[in-house]
């Protein structure tokens, strides 16, 4: 078997790459270890930057998103007994976000690939990469796939990054002393916009998926397990944190899904080795507080598509050689923003009174100074793509 680009992973990065390459007449095969059903049900991100939305629409896979996605023109920061709106329409005119579940994006991309005759294989076992220095190939389940290039889109726990020889990558990391417990609930959102809440009990986020489904997150200890969080405890804690302004009542309902997400910041540089190019979570992770992970995956894939098109159409390797450097500028901006939002809104050590005063001072600044609020807003909606 032979293809131009062998893609490992059918998450947003791998699927979008396969689709964008198809639009440029470049062939690919996507190898995914989980089932289609599993990939389509995995509840994750929900906030799409303007540039991500534009990319999906331009690529012809934004039809359902345009119909069902919820455009948002602001977010609320809630702390110290009051809510403060960060108004995108005023601070970053013309730019906004769209709330649309990552698994919906994934479903739309899988449907588009399959209806165009694309080769996406699920439940593929033992994917391994070979020959990265010159003529690469992939093996899986007793088969061999020869490729010109391999794209490692297999997430943080995949096989592609570990296949890069030791000593090549430089790794930058930060761990946080807490995790997020995320739930999906069958209940209409209690707010029209997302609420990021800082309380002395910890952080909470009110998000949503549709007019009838809400998504919530709670800061929990790093070693928390789902079994420790029966539904009543989750609602009680969400109420204790979110009902921290007068007149706000949180509606509750059936919890459809629960999960604990560790919080980590991670970058591996460079994002390439020989004929292997890493994209998305395979190369970098951000804590979800800034809602950047999925959007960064899309940004990487845009850059990689242009570089691969230059290579296959004109034989030019310049853009491929500069792939990592081109991506890392945006990656590090998102790293800083995500670390900063996380640091601002979560509780750290109990006895760190100095740290708490710094958080409150910065929250007061960001909610009273238009300049500071604009910094938050322009990063949140996403800085423009690099030319
Ligand atoms: P993915 O989605 O992890 O996909 C990788 C795919 O590779 C497969 N795979 C393999 N396949 C074959 N062989 C192997 N050996 C393989 N190993 C792995 C996996 O099964 C999987 O299908 O990575 P990708 O495509 O880079 O996409 C990245 C995003 O998924 C991630 O950054 C976001 O979900 C992060 N994130 C958020 N990002 C946002 O932009 N906005 C948000 O609001 C947001 N909220 C979140 C989030 C992530 C969360 N969790 C659960 C980590 C909220 C949460 C709770
Ligand atoms: C979500 O809706 O899943 C979501 C929203 C905002 C975030 C993270 C996750 O910062």
UniProtKB/TrEMBL annotation:
Cite the entry's keywords alphabetically: FAD, Flavoprotein, Oxidoreductase
Q: Which GO terms describe its biological process?
A: benzoate catabolic process
- Entry superkingdom: Bacteria
Q: Which GO terms describe its molecular function?
A: 4-hydroxybenzoate 3-monooxygenase activity; FAD binding
InterPro entries assigned to the protein according to its UniProt record, in alphabetical order: FAD-bd, FAD/NAD-bd_sf, HB_mOase, RIFMO-like
The FAD-binding domain extends over 2-337
**Stored Pfam families:** FAD_binding_3
Which SUPFAM superfamilies does this chain map to?
A: FAD-linked reductases, C-terminal domain, FAD/NAD(P)-binding domain
UniProt-listed Enzyme Commission number(s): 1.14.13.2
Q: Does the keyword Oxidoreductase apply?
A: yes
Name this protein carries in UniProt: 4-hydroxybenzoate 3-monooxygenase
**Species classification:** Bacteria, Bacillati, Actinomycetota, Actinomycetes, Streptosporangiales
Instruction: Name the gene for this chain.
Output: pobA
């Amino acid at each position: 078997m032979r293809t131009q680009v062998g893609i490992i992973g059918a998450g947003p990065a791998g699927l979008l790459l396969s689709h964008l390459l198809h639009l440029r007449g470049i062939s690919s095969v996507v190898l995914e270890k989980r089932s289609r059903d599993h990939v389509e049900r995995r509840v994750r991100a929900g906030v799409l930057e303007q540039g991500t939305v534009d990319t999906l629409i331009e690529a012809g896979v934004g039809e359902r998103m345009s119909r069902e996605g919820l455009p948002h023109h602001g977010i609320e920061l809630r702390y110290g007994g009051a809510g403060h709106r960060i108004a995108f329409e005023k601070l970053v005119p013309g730019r906004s976000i769209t709330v649309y579940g990552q698994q919906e994006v994934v479903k739309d991309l899988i449907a588009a690939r399959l209806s165009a005759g694309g080769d996406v294989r699920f439940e593929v076992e033992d994917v391994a990469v070979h020959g990265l220095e010159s003529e690469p190939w992939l093996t899986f389940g007793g088969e061999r796939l020869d490729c010109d290039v391999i794209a490692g889109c297999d997430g943080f726990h995949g096989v592609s990054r570990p296949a890069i020889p030791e000593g090549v990558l430089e790794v930058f990391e930060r761990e946080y002393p807490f995790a997020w417990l995320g739930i999906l609930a069958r209940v209409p959102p209690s707010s029209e916009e997302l609420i990021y809440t800082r309380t002395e009990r910890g952080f909470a986020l009110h998000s949503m998926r549709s007019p009838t489904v809400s998504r919530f997150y709670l800061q929990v200890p790093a070693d928390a397990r789902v079994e420790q969080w029966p539904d009543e405890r989750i609602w009680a804690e969400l109420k204790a944190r979110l009902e921290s302004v007068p007149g706000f009542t949180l509606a509750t309902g059936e919890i459809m899904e629960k999960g604990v997400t560790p919080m980590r910041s991670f970058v591996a540089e460079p994002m390439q080795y020989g004929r292997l190019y890493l994209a998305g979570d395979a190369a970098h992770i951000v804590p979800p507080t800034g809602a950047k992970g999925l959007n960064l995956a899309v940004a990487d894939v845009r850059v990689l598509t242009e570089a691969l098109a230059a290579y296959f159409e004109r034989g030019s390797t310049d853009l491929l050689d500069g792939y990592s450097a081109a991506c890392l500028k945006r990656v590090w901006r998102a790293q800083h923003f995500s670390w900063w939002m996380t640091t601002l809104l979560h509780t750290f050590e109990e006895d760190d009174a100095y740290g708490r005063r710094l958080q409150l001072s910065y929250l007061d600044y960001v909610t009273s100074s238009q300049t500071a609020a604009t910094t938050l807003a322009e990063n949140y909606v996403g800085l423009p793509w690099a030319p």
